[in-house]
Automatic annotation (TrEMBL):
Pathway(s) served: Cofactor biosynthesis; molybdopterin biosynthesis
Functional note: Catalyzes the insertion of molybdate into adenylated molybdopterin with the concomitant release of AMP.
Reactions this protein catalyses: adenylyl-molybdopterin + molybdate = Mo-molybdopterin + AMP + H(+)
Protein name: Molybdopterin molybdenumtransferase
Similarity section: Belongs to the MoeA family.
GO biological process assignments: Mo-molybdopterin cofactor biosynthetic process
Gene Ontology cellular component terms for the protein in this record: cytosol
Cofactor: Mg(2+)
Stored InterPro entries: MoaB/Mog-like_dom_sf, MoaB/Mog_dom, MoeA-like, MoeA_C_domain_IV, MoeA_C_domain_IV_sf, MoeA_linker/N, MoeA_linker/N_sf
UniProt GO molecular function: metal ion binding; molybdopterin molybdotransferase activity
Any Pfam family: MoCF_biosynth
Region ranges (Disordered): 344-364
Organism: Saccharopolyspora hordei
Keyword annotations of the record: Magnesium, Metal-binding, Molybdenum, Molybdenum cofactor biosynthesis, Transferase
Amino acid sequence: MSHGTPNPDLTAVAEHQATVAALLQPTEVEVTPLADCLGRALAEDLVAPIPLPPFDNSAMDGYAVRSVDLADAGPEQPVELPVVEDVPAGRVDVPPLQPGTAHRIMTGAQVPSGADAVVPVERTDRGTERVRVFTSVQPGAHLRRAGEDVAVGATVLTAGTTLGPSQLGVAAAVGAAELPVHRPVRVLVLSTGSELVAPGTPLQPGQIYESNGLMLAAAVRDAGGEATLLRFVPDDVDAFHEALAPHLDGTDLLITSGGVSAGAYEVVKDALTGNGVEFTKVAMQPGMPQGCGRYRGGTAVVTLPGNPVSSMVSFEVFVRPALRAAAGHRVTRRPVRQATLTEPLTAPPERRQYRRGRYDPGTGTVSLQGAPGSHLLAGMAKANCLLEVPEHVTELDAGSTVDVMLLD
Ligand SMILES: Nc1nc2c(c(=O)[nH]1)N[C@H]1C(S)=C(S)[C@@H](COP(=O)(O)OP(=O)(O)OC[C@H]3O[C@@H](n4cnc5c(N)ncnc54)[C@H](O)[C@@H]3O)O[C@H]1N2
Ligand code: MOO
């Protein structure tokens, strides 16, 4: 393990994260039908205008009774009561229960006034005119009280909550037909590189299939954003600006991949230097060459390195949290767990290493998926987490504890 001082030529990961996050403002709030709110962030607290349940109702199919009428009932000495009413769920005109009688009642149906308990049908002879009950009941048995889930005026969801199925369920249950949510961040994903061709076409020697654009657009959508993909932008500065121009209006964030390192044909760097984007080396591996800024003072830009794993890891570390924050989500980071490493690893000094791994929540262990190389995309595809090896750590033994960022 080494404890070197931070390298002044490298930007700290946290600093670049903050710079990227500061580029994006929260998106506008749109009142949106509930069915279209899945995955969006709630913009205001949701307060219940009604209680849940809205009225006292039965938890079982059975008979609404007065518990005192069944005080002497038992398996050998049933009590017989006349069945006066049938109360299915949804019946709105339920008459009160008179002493010494029963109403047949279904799960979710309103409990008649006068009843203080429900006897499940299994504890009776299931009679429809008269019913024989083989058990006594406690007052309140099998009743669900109005407001016991949610009181009127209670906050059921707070602003910033990510709306999943359960959250949409409770919103519908309190009667919300639409919710104020942040609109998705609109992202233009642009990939450059003369060596790139579309999957599905023949590959010439020296060519590779374009994968970063598709991958990053999918990552944007997975993060809740809207993605437009612009591929095969030529390695030519004028062509780059021309390709970009028609898309800038309505784009909140431009993400590029490739063309930023030290070579002779770095179109992204050449086109964006002097046009509002700063390039830097971040103290991480993979993902060292990074850039961000505002294209000609307007649209936010993040330039990601072209190596596929570098692109994907950089998206996770810098872009995803910024997208989530701009879209109003309170939780912007992936969950992090501590895991026990199943094998040793080495890492570069002065850089935070993100290795790809598989975390087993059952054993709390993590195993590496592939070597550190930032072109090794298959390991990334097998991974369900990224190991975060701190900047000052250059080796870890098997059995060490390491932080893992869960990806799914
Ligand atoms: N002399 C130096 N060379 C390199 C340095 C350096 O500091 N000095 N940094 C290395 C590191 S680290 C990285 S990461 C890469 C970053 O390079 P670029 O961002 O300029 O990316 P490219 O050169 O355009 O491509 C790198 C690699 O990735 C492939 N690629 C690019 N785009 C795509 C795409 N859309 N789909 C699939 N694959 C893509 C490309 O073919 C290259 O193999 O630079 C190192 N070099
Ligand atoms: O930083 Mo590069 O991303 O190591 O391969």
